[in-house]
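This protein record is not my work; I was only asked to verify it. The record follows directly below this note.
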Amino acid sequence: KRPLALLRPLAPQPPAYAALARDRQRADSGSPLSLWTAALRLRRDLGLGDGELRWTSAPDADVLALDRGDVHVTANIGPGTVDLPPGAEVLLSSDPDAGRTVPPDTTVWWR
């Protein structure tokens, strides 16, 4: 039996998918793979997999917010920007240029 990595795909992949390949994403600090790798590292380093998760946003809010200990997650799914509290330390952001102002379609992990 051949290892899965050596098997050929059943159908050819479109050329546009080349940019989504793991080797290309690994080299791109702004790729989804890099974001998820950083998020998993943060989860491990801060012990975020254990303990209580507390939702702090309303169910119909434009901002989803949750806390785990002293780490907060703010996901802006609305049309406007959201400011984090003064002194907030951004640990990770899905938009590296966001800073403490969270634009639409952006998630920030902070404390």
In short: The beta strands are 54-55, 63-68, 71-76, 82-83, 90-93, 101-102, 106-110.
